Amino acid sequence: MDNVTIKDIARALNLSTSTVSRALRGSYEINPETKRLVMEYAERLNYRPNPIALSLRENRSRAIGVIVPQIANYFFSQAINGIEAIAYNRGYHVIIFQSHESFEREVTNVEQSMARKVDGLLISLSSQTSDVSHLRNIQQRGVPIVMFDRISDEIETTRVVADNFSGAFVATEHLINTGRRRIAHITTQPWMSITQERLAGYKAALAQYGVPFDEELVRYGGFSREEVQPVVEDLLTLPNPPDAYFAAGDRLALGCLSVLRQRHISVPDQASLIGFTNLNVADMLSPALSTVVQPAQEIGQTAAECLIELIERKQKGVEFKTVKLPTQLIIRESTELIS
């Protein structure tokens, strides 16, 4: 059935158009059974809201701004897929911006979002962002914000994240259980939320298994291969170099693997390697890369749902919350058991 309208659904279910409209928006004023009937019928007829008509009727843009560090990053591309799926089904446009890991560009992205009069903003902070006053300013203007993946505690809002602590704990625990004791942790800028949470999980696993924490084995840096190379090279010059590397991101892990190959260090025979995020080519590397998987698409979907809830204020007194989604350890060749 082409060009299905709210009137068509209302006529078929013997409901008023206003009831159908509110049910499709998830309004708390409509009872759950009516919502279910309307949603099921709308899905069966492949009904999709008309964002332009909705924006004219409601005097809103029906647009959501999304700011990510880099679309080419597999995690963020999957998160955007999740965001767009939810937004499309709820009648919202998605306007995507990239900060390219730059604080200045992130601020510009926020300004551009406001110029386009978005109804709300989804953002994952750049690696340079430690000051979130630009976000606090637009929040004070009444624009809802939801942070995802890379977040800040400096602003009170809803956040959607992976369980970084648990993911780092099980990754480190796995390396310990395969016989490793000199486990280096290569991570990102120390002020980033993901850095702090994954470092805490790494430390907790070492402590639980009685492995002494060596601050010399924790190295901070950027995401590019050029930034990772000197970090790994320096670790290899230690009198007692690492026998395992836990990289806080798969791009860091790729840079680490490249250096180990150049130095003819066999993985996993001489050193194990594990990443975090699960690149779509992780299983095609040689050796296949063990990694911690974040539910990227689910994070995007949940973040979009939370933002639309804030925008539409279906319930009075909406409280900000932090949603933490579980990670999964995928074991491959790069961390095989040593004899």
Automatic annotation (TrEMBL):
GO MF: DNA-binding transcription factor activity; transcription cis-regulatory region binding
Key word Metal-binding present: no
Q: Which domain of life is it from?
A: Bacteria
Residue ranges annotated for the HTH lacI-type domain, each copy included: 4-58
Which keywords belong to this entry?
DNA-binding, Transcription, Transcription regulation
- Which CDD domains does the entry link to? HTH_LacI, PBP1_LacI_sugar_binding-like
| InterPro entries in the record | HTH_LacI, LacI/GalR-like_sensor, Lambda_DNA-bd_dom_sf, Peripla_BP_I
Q: Which SMART domains match?
A: HTH_LACI
Which N-terminal stretch is annotated as signal sequence? none
Q: Which SUPFAM superfamilies match?
A: lambda repressor-like DNA-binding domains, Periplasmic binding protein-like I
PANTHER family linked to this entry = HTH-TYPE TRANSCRIPTIONAL REGULATOR GALS, LACI-RELATED TRANSCRIPTIONAL REPRESSOR
Q: What is this protein called?
A: LacI family transcriptional regulator
Origin species, per record, is Arsenicibacter rosenii
Q: Specify the taxonomic lineage.
A: Bacteria, Pseudomonadati, Bacteroidota, Cytophagia, Cytophagales
